[in-house]
Amino acid sequence: MTKVLIVEQSKSVRNNLRERLEFEGFKTEGAESVAIARRMCENLPFDVVLTDRVEGFDGLELPLIVLSRDSSIDSAVEAVRHGAIDFLTKPIDMNRLLGSIRKAVAPPAEEAKPQRSAKPRHSAGCATIEPIVGESEAIVRVRELVDKIARSEARVLITGENGTGKELVARWLHCKSSRKDAPFVEVNCAAIPSELIESELFGHEKGAFTSAIKQRKGKFEQADGGTLFMDEIGDMSLSAQAKVLRALQERKISRVGSDRDIEVDVRVVAATNKNLEKEIAEGRFREDLYHRIGVILIKVPPLRERKGDVAILVNYFLESICREYNIPTKEIDAEAVARLSDRRWSGNIRELRNIVERLVVLGGATITREDIESYC
User: Fold this and answer.
1) Are the beta carbons of 230 and 270 closer than 8 angstroms?
2) I need a surface site. Which of 11, 41, 156, 212 has the fewest CB within 10 A?
3) Whether the bond into 107 is cis, omega within 30 of 0
4) pLDDT tens track for 103-151
5) Distance, CA of 286 to CA of 288 (rounded, Å)
6) Angle of the 310-325 helix axis to the 348-362 helix axis, nearest 10
7) What percent of the chain is helix, strand and coil (3-state, nearest 5)?
8) What residues contact residue 376 under an 8 Å CB cut-off, 6+ apart?
9) Which backbone phi and psi does 32 adopt, to 5 degrees?
């Protein structure tokens, strides 16, 4: 899998790029400075670097793609002079960025071949799914709910902030259900442009629109017999919501450009970080769809409400990340754990895992308070 390092000062821009690229099937890491990026490159095998600046990458021998707010010719020339293979201006055209990344990592003999879109992500197998880690009352309640409702066919709405583990809860609902041997298909409604969401969900016929060069099955068909996880459903357009409602009511969909109905047997598990009742009041979400998807509600707590789980999670991530990198498991001292427990964790579990991975790469054999202060 292609591994992309994103070097960007803005945390929100960095996280948005990571989400979009991971949806397309890439593995990503983020760094807020060139200094941190260089240290990460010394320890991890990246295939391409996206950066908002050009200086400081000499000698890395990695393809650089510069993402700049300055669209001047001088800036582009300067980027190429420092070894950039492409220069894109912000706001980023994702289609061009994806093409540039794929070209950068393609073997020479493959470059002339047309690029395929990323395959939908299916469950890699329930045996490899991560556990829901923690012993706090709130997370124990989540595990109990999953055990209680997984084998039913009830639709579930999972709520919670970004990074709390809503996708993991959805996977466990699938893996503990009678549908566990059928596909688990994900779609991130926030990562897909509004004009493409219907095609992603329901598929399209050849010639349905300009770029529809062949027939394509949508996520509902791909998940037939299994579970469709609709992440960030609160970001879906009203027109797409109407079609999802019909699919849930009638268990039928029709591809874009087709009048033919296709029967589908799908359990929908949805997730959102938004207050859907507020979205309904403000006219951005259909109340009838809300009642369809929210038969059972599961609220995943933010990490700041389960601080007693931070130490457990840190040790779990230390072990799993070191195993992934094939290195001896690192230790962390009590003072370092205490510093981590005191953080607010606006990015929740996802942010914690990223920081532990950074500490594995940059810290010593025993991670100390000084490592926390230096790298976090």
Assistant:
1) yes
2) 11
3) no
4) 888 754 433 333 333 334 444 467 778 999 999 999 999 999 999 999 9
5) 5
6) 50
7) 45, 15, 40
8) 340, 343, 355, 358, 359
9) -90, -5
